[in-house]
Amino acid sequence: MRWLGDSTPGERLAEYAGRLCYMSQHNPVNRTTADYLDNIKKQGHGSVLEHSVYVLLIEGISRSCSHELVRHRAGFGYSQISQRYVDESHAAFVVPPAILGDAKLEADWEHQVAEAQAAYVRAVEGLMERYAWVSDKVHRRKMAREAARSVLPNATEVKIVVSGNARAWRTTLELRCGEGAELEIRRMAIACLRALQREAPALFSDFEIYVADDKQEAARVTYHKV
Ligand SMILES: Cc1cc2nc3c(=O)[nH]c(=O)nc-3n(C[C@H](O)[C@H](O)[C@H](O)COP(=O)(O)OP(=O)(O)OC[C@H]3O[C@@H](n4cnc5c(N)ncnc54)[C@H](O)[C@@H]3O)c2cc1C
Questions:
Q1: So where are the chain's domains?
Q2: CA distance linking residue 37 with residue 8, whole number of Å
Q3: Nearest atom within ligand 1 for CA of residue 180
Q4: How far is Cα 62 from Cα 117, in angstroms, rounded to an integer?
Q5: Is the pTM of this model over 0.90?
Q6: Which CATH class is domain 9-79+158-221?
Q7: Are 167 and 223 in contact (CB under 8 A)?
Q8: Which residues pair with 218 in a beta bridge?
């Protein structure tokens, strides 16, 4: 391979895979990795981008946001915190962006989630007593938590490890950074986009972040998903 220009390992892997198809490793037209991958995106050779996988730990998003995220199946792997095993008595809650900044709405919301969390704690205690006869304590706690979680709000914070290939990320970011996306997942997608643009500019630099009419950030892509 004759590499030209700055590049990161994921970008090089995609270029390597693309060049293998035509055995053009000698780089006959002196393209930098960024130029080469720009042309790949323009031509719509999305399969070349599938070799480069980016793994993000996403925290501080709500359960409803992660539910929307995991709908993106092709090219993604997920591992999310388990509400059956993990105690949610001290869980954090994510304020919806539309509520942020309005003192009255925020206060009402905080009151509502605090009530829900108190109900969760009461339910766990009650269920632990009800199933006191279950000798395996781990199993008993799981029984209690998996039932008690039903009263937790959608706003409950989750942590999730998301592995996705560059093609899959591009497709998802195009949908979730768009103005039609729900505000929280849009905010999350913009944060992911910024991380991926830092890590692999040649794979994600054709996304442009801007402030939309609703005063929130959105992003548009030059090379539409393929
Ligand atoms: C603004 C917005 C609003 C939404 N609102 C709703 C809603 O109200 N209700 C709701 O249920 N969902 C909603 N969704 C989720 C949406 O329906 C999709 O589930 C989500 O965007 C993932 O898209 P996808 O299936 O194309 O992605 P992926 O699963 O990642 O698939 C990517 C592409 O791979 C191909 N593919 C994947 N799986 C298959 C398959 N089994 N067979 C054939 N081809 C396949 C398709 O070409 C697909 O487009 C919304 C999404 C957005 C962005």
A1: 9-79+158-221, 97-153
A2: 12
A3: 1
A4: 14
A5: yes
A6: alpha beta
A7: no
A8: 210
Q: For residue 22, give Cα distances in angstroms to 16, 47, 177, 222.
A: 11, 15, 34, 26
Q: What's the 106 CA to ligand 1 centre distance in angstroms?
A: 32
The reported pLDDT for the residue numbered 135 is: 96
Predicted pLDDT of residue 8:
97
170-204, pLDDT tens digit by residue?
999 999 999 999 999 999 999 999 999 999 999 99
Ligand 1 binding pocket includes 181 (Cβ within 6 Å): yes
Written as six digits, the tokens of 142 are 């799981």
User: Which pLDDT tens digit goes with each residue over 28-61?
Assistant: 999 999 999 999 999 999 999 999 999 999 999 9
Question: What residue type is assigned to position 116 of the chain?
Answer: A
Say if ligand 1 is within 6 A of residue 56 CB: no
For residues 10 and 47, what is the distance between their CA atoms, to the nearest angstrom?
14
Name the residue among 57, 59, 121, 122 with its Cα closest to residue 94: 59
Determine the distance separating the centroid of ligand 1 and the alpha carbon of 175, expressed in angstroms: 9
> What percentage of the chain carries pLDDT values higher than 90?
99
Instruction: Quote the CA–CA distance of 210 and 186 in Å, as a whole number.
Output: 12
Which residue blocks in the chain are alpha helix, DSSP H?
9-22, 33-43, 63-69, 103-130, 137-148, 166-176, 183-199, 201-204
